[in-house]
Design a protein that fits this description.
By secondary structure, this protein is mostly beta strands. The protein has a six-stranded antiparallel sheet with strand order 1-2-3-9-10-11, with no helix packed on it. The longest helix is centred in the middle third of the chain and has 5 residues. The protein starts with 9 loop residues before the first strand and ends with a strand.
Length: 123
């Protein structure tokens, strides 16, 4: 499933109990389960969004990068690719919501425990 984020740039990243990425068109991607980031030409690094440690610098470098694709796989996995060549991936969690996307029109896509995808829209 295409999340229709292509062409949007990352305007801000936030760290709290999760990792949140905000886009130029007011979409919010919130990552709440273990995820991975692959920097352009770099190693794949797995991180805990609650405490990303040294990975935080790689995540902050996504600010001003442009999304080239944002896809949900058949098992609920999320893959966001960026113009720089970086890739952010989140696998489903068996016990918790792994990630969610909230749009400016209050639409919502959530990876439920086990990978099932739930969608809400005001329309």
């Amino acid at each position: 499933m295409d999340l229709n984020l292509r062409g949007q740039s990352v305007t801000r990243v936030c760290f709290d109990a999760a990792f949140t990425l905000l886009t130029s068109e007011d979409y919010e991607v919130r990552v709440e389960a273990d995820a991975s980031i692959q920097a352009p030409g770099g190693d794949l690094v797995v991180f805990d969004p609650e405490s990303p440690g040294a990975t935080a610098a790689q995540l902050v470098s996504l600010v001003h990068d442009t999304i080239t694709s944002a896809e949900v796989g058949s098992v609920g996995d999320l893959l966001i690719s960026f113009e720089s060549g970086a890739e952010l991936a989140v696998a489903p969690d068996s016990d918790y919501e792994a990630w969610e996307l909230v749009g400016p029109n209050r639409s919502r896509v959530v990876c439920m425990p086990g990978g099932e995808i739930a969608r809400w829209s005001e329309q």
